[in-house]
Specification:
By secondary structure, this protein is mainly β. It folds into two domains: about 35 residues, no CATH class; about 130 residues, Electron Transport, Fmn-binding Protein, Chain A (Pnp Oxidase, Chain A), CATH 2.30.110.10. It contains four helices and 15 strands. The strands form four sheets. It has a seven-stranded antiparallel sheet with strand order 6-5-9-12-13-8-7. Strand 14 and strand 15 form a beta hairpin. It is globular and about 60 Å long.
């Protein structure tokens, strides 16, 4: 255990059971924000209790962030795709690594134009987000097909998505890993948030049609500068 952590506890919500059964390492205090902390006995989580899982499903445990939409524009034609493989790699300037398969229609546009928008949809758009990911822009105008509104961006040719709670205008700054891993490094050059969707909940893909939804926020003391 890390510094200042003396015991392992289970969180148990006294009323609604929201945290019941969730293992967590916490400081020694017996209560946290009104939630009772139950000490774990030594050896209660032994390796023998673990089970093998297929390596092909590891990604379901490590999905890094919300499902997003990625827009591109090439030769006057805007396209949109669903993307869940992405991660932050730098604070300032904000850099994002994302995987766009070379089988996707958006791949060529992103590689040629080196511009895109990452649009972050809220829970209400989930059905459309899934459908967008199950068809190709080669065959249709997906903005029109799924009733989404393209909005001109300020710094890139790719459009924002009006219905999304946030939009990030991006430029490709590194393609060294594209040939081998389909990984593009994007720099966010302009960011937008919709104040009308201040409490929007995002969705997180766990594979095979299963999604998690953002839950209750918790706040712990941070020692970061």
């Amino acid at each position: 255990m890390g510094p200042g952590v003396r015991s392992a506890y289970l969180l148990e919500a006294p009323v609604n059971g929201r945290f019941r059964g969730v293992p967590c390492l916490v400081p020694v205090e017996r209560r946290w924000n009104g939630v009772r902390l139950i000490p774990l006995k030594a050896g209660s989580r032994s390796p023998a209790a673990m089970r093998d899982m297929p390596l092909s499903k590891v990604y379901q445990l490590l999905e890094p962030g919300p499902v997003v939409l990625l827009t591109t524009a090439q030769k006057g034609q805007a396209n949109i795709m669903t993307m869940s493989w992405h991660m932050m790699v730098e604070f300032e300037p904000p850099l994002v690594a994302c995987v766009v398969s070379n089988r996707n229609h958006s791949f060529a546009a992103l590689r040629v134009t080196k511009q895109c928008v990452i649009a972050i949809p809220a829970l209400e758009l989930a059905p459309r987000v899934v459908e967008i990911g199950n068809c190709s822009g080669r065959d249709m105008d997906k903005f029109e097909r799924f009733g989404l509104t393209p909005v001109p961006a300020k710094r890139v040719a790719a459009p924002l998505v009006a219905e999304c709670c946030a939009n990030l205008e991006c430029k490709v700054v590194d393609t060294q890993m594209v040939n081998r891993f389909n990984i593009f490094i994007l720099e966010v050059v302009k960011a937008w948030k919709d104040p009308a969707q201040k409490h929007a909940k995002t969705i997180h893909h766990h594979g095979y049609g299963k999604f998690a939804v953002d839950g209750e926020m918790i706040k712990l003391k941070s020692r970061m500068p």
